[in-house]
Amino acid sequence: MSVVTALVRGAFLVNAVYADAGRAYGLTPQQGQLLCVLMPGPTGMGELGAKLGLAKSSLTGLVDRTSRLGFVRRESDPEDRRAVRVALTEDGSRVAEDFYAETCRRIDDLPSGLDAAERGQLAGLLGRVVEDNEVPVVFADPA
Fold first, then answer.
1. What is the pLDDT of residues 64-104, one digit of tens each?
2. Which end is more exposed in the chain, N or C (fewer Cβ atoms within 10 Å of the end residue's Cβ)?
3. What CA–CA distance (Å, rounded) separates 130 from 50?
């Protein structure tokens, strides 16, 4: 299998796991991504749009839909009263942590046929591809 084929099919595989884990929590994949991005703390709309690769109107809709579920809220930025940040609610924090843990578990199972050395090689090589392409942190390393 070529690198292109392996990366594209691997992306589809991870996206399918992500979507399946999200369904277990009543989340779309985009809502799951939003919750994971917000786990470290409140984030401005501009930064969220850049991390998630969404236009302002798409991001606004995503935040609105996730807010209606009670998982995020908008708040004023203490450094710029004109700016808005998005933060997890208490329920959102719980769902984000559970969704994150479940997603990590499911994705960690994907390379179960690899031994420890092979898993290390895979992580190292994929990590280099991610870093070389400056992919924003939308899903942090599990603690």
1. 999 999 999 999 888 887 888 999 999 999 999 999 999 99
2. C
3. 16
How many angstroms separate the CA atoms of 94 and 114, rounded?
32
Q: Across the strands, what pairs with 85?
A: 44, 75
Instruction: Give the separation between CA 25 and CA 98, rounded to whole angstroms.
Output: 9
Q: For residues 3 and 93, give the distance between their C-alpha atoms in angstroms, rounded to a whole number.
A: 37
Half-sphere exposure of 78 (CA within 13 A, CB side): 1
Rounded Cα gap, residues 79 and 86, in angstroms: 14
